[in-house]
Specification:
heterodimer, A: alpha/beta, Rossmann fold, 3 domains, 8-stranded mixed β-sheet, about 40% helix, B: alpha/beta, 10 helices, about 35% helix
Chain lengths: ~375, ~270
């Protein structure tokens, strides 16, 4: 019976909402926006049933603010949105990065810029996810490609944000948000749930931004007897603002080094390599589903392919791409934008002989397997 | 002698505020009100936005959260929903709360969430050097209104009342003891409460408008103040330049976090 319950037909948005609850989500604040709205609708129903809290805020800016406040008060917290709303969230997303408040932000991507193509898929926010807020800041972004993976990566998003105190973005797109797929959801003993590391010192010795060996300061919620100050100003280990150049450098280096230091733990890719492959493919999100089909067709024709699909796009899997670039002549980068990630792949492959082949589509339609297959055939003939 | 020290982070003094600024008077008023109620430092979360008044959270020994410009109420909403047992106080200014944060301000009041807002109204953007705020009176100069302000100004208290707040009061840095009582009532009141505290800014507002130093501006606050009950007997046209002080509204309305808890409880009952 229990097993039967885990066999489901569900959409990506549903998987995201339920994955979040499985990870321990107890607070959601959001603002309606296509194609992400179902996440809010589902959580409005689920959260109060388990003692959690849901609030529809007056805009995306305040949704992000409420999420940070809730996390600081001790709840695992999330918001979901799409392009225009994601732009509005950037202000407080930067705050979460700066003040190291764990939180998860879902962006179900649609066509942009501006109001763009509200009901159609795109992958135009991959760079906004990295650099959307101002200033150098750490960020983690996950990019699932199936309903089941949305469930898994939503759990992972919470685990990563709790562990590293870095806001984690989940990049979905309209196709993934709305597609129905049969899934077998994992039982709770099949996944881990991580929680923030609490201080092991009494309140008078607690430094909220302590330079610990791990680089991640222990985190205690407001209201637990550890009174401290949280600010978006550059601060020292005590949490209070500083203008001292040495302290500024110490803080900003620690903050930004969190990603560099732990990228091997954070980065997750799906890699398939045929021995002797001369054609590489780097694809992500819903586009990688088409890529997968085109690779099957290519293999049927005897064409060898080396494919990499990131499940984590930020930090970027530079090392893995560099390794691929050493052995292939071409790397095809299909994406639903004008080539945002192709530039990153080009940079990662610098110094190799691999040529980066962009394959882009921005008309609100997915890149289909035939398009990628045609490119493979063309490159194979070169 | 009242002991302010137990509420202050003494190593963070001196304050950033200019000589003659009224914000220190209002801050002391807040601390006396907290003391009167008997709240412990641990029970309080104090949230602020950006601006001169919002720097207050750095000086007081509570759980303090200095947020982004205009967004204090959004952050405070998250804190209050997760920990409704905490006393959540928002420190903000006229620009922070009613210009960039105007949307959050009216919606927090509409939800009637149990947060107390102490709004330092100095009619100007002080920290950035004297630009026009939504409460700069018409005709007054600001660095971005060099020929005099041609806009109408906001009635901040009226806005909160109309939006659905449980408690709204207006006081001045001149009459600090009355302010104590208003703040005490605001914190005790269940629901969204606002105390609009008029505070002089001699540096960025007074100087440009030849209003004199801090003490002269305080005296002006006194001269311009009329208790609300008294003002009711005066024709409206004679009140345009006046500050109507006292309790604007004090009413019992359903509170947001309590309503949400009732919802949770009702769903729990159903599942039994």
């Amino acid at each position: 019976m229990e097993n039967k319950k885990r066999i489901r037909v569900m959409t990506g948005n549903e998987a995201c909402a339920e994955g979040a609850i499985a990870a321990g989500l107890r607070f959601y604040a959001g603002y309606p926006i296509t194609p992400s709205t179902e996440i809010a609708e589902i959580l409005a129903g689920l959260l109060p049933r388990i003692g959690g809290k849901f609030i529809q805020m007056e805009d995306e800016i305040s949704s992000m603010g409420a999420v940070i406040g809730a996390s600081l008060a001790g709840s695992k917290a999330m918001t979901a949105t799409s392009g225009p709303g994601f732009s509005l969230k950037q202000e407080n997303l930067g705050y979460a990065s700066m003040a190291e408040i764990p939180c998860v932000i879902v962006n179900v991507m649609r066509g942009g810029p501006s109001t763009g193509l509200p009901t159609l898929p795109a992958q135009g926010d991959v760079m906004q996810a990295r650099w959307g807020t101002h200033g150098d800041h750490p960020i983690i972004a996950l990019i699932p490609n199936s309903v089941r993976e949305i469930y898994d990566l939503t759990i992972r998003a919470f685990n990563l944000t709790e562990k590293y105190r870095v806001p984690v973005i989940i990049l979905m797109d309209e196709i993934l948000g709305h597609v129905n797929e049969k899934v077998i959801l994992p039982s709770p003993d099949e996944y881990e749930v991580w929680n923030r590391v609490k201080p092991d010192v009494p309140p008078e010795e607690y430094l909220p931004y302590q330079e610990t060996e791990s680089g991640i300061p222990p985190f205690v919620s407001f209201g637990e007897g550890y009174r401290y100050h949280v600010t978006g100003l550059v601060h020292d280990q005590t949490g209070f603002p500083t203008n001292d150049s040495k302290e500024i450098v110490r803080f900003l280096e620690r903050l930004n080094n969190k990603i560099d230091r732990y990228k091997d733990d954070i980065i997750e890719i799906d890699e398939e390599k045929d021995a002797g492959a001369k054609i590489g493919i780097f694809s992500y999100g819903s586009t990688s589903r088409s890529a997968k089909r085109s690779v099957i067709w290519a293999r049927e024709k005897g064409i060898k392919i080396h494919s990499i699909r990131p499940k984590v796009i930020w930090p970027f899997p530079e090392k893995q791409i560099a390794a691929m670039a050493e052995s292939v002549d071409f790397i095809i980068v299909p994406e639903l934008n004008f080539g945002q990630i192709a530039h990153e792949v080009e940079w990662a492959a610098r110094g190799s002989k691999a040529e980066i082949i962009k394959l882009n589509r921005i008309d609100g339609e997915p890149i289909n397997p035939q398009q990628i297959f045609d490119v493979i055939i063309e490159l194979d003939g070169r | 002698m009242f002991d302010y020290n137990k509420y202050l982070r003494l190593n963070k003094l001196p304050l950033i505020w200019c000589p003659g600024c009224g914000h220190g008077i209002v801050m002391k008023s807040i601390l006396r009100a907290i003391d009167k109620i008997g709240l412990s430092n641990d029970e309080i979360t104090m949230v602020s936005g950006i601006g001169c008044s919002s720097r207050l959270t750095g000086y007081v020994d509570f759980n303090t959260l200095h947020t982004t410009h205009g967004r204090a109420l959004a952050f405070a909403t998250g804190v209050k929903m997760v920990k409704p047992e905490m006393t959540v106080i928002v420190i903000t200014g006229d620009g922070d709360a009613t210009a960039i944060g105007g949307n959050h301000y009216i919606h927090a009041a509409r939800r009637n969430i149990d947060i107390s807002v102490i709004l330092f109204n100095n009619n100007i953007y002080g920290m950035t050097g004297g630009q026009l705020s939504p409460t700069t009176p018409a005709g007054f100069n600001a660095s971005t209104a060099p020929y005099g302000n041609v806009e109408n100004s906001f009635n901040i208290s009226g806005l909160a009342e109309a939006a659905g707040a449980s408690f709204v009061a207006r006081g001045t840095a001149f009459d600090a003891l009355k302010l104590d009582k208003m703040i005490e009532k605001a914190i005790r009141k269940k629901g969204f409460s606002l105390v609009e505290a008029m505070s002089p800014c001699p540096t960025a507002f007074g100087r440009r408008n030849r209003l004199g130093n801090g003490s002269k501006m305080l005296k002006q606050l006194k001269d311009d103040s009329i208790p609300i009950a008294k003002a009711a007997k005066i024709p409206t046209e004679d009140l345009t330049d006046k500050i109507l002080t006292g309790i604007v509204v004090d009413r019992d309305l359903p509170e947001y976090t309590e309503n949400y808890q009732k919802l949770i409880d009702s769903l729990q009952d159903k599942s039994k």
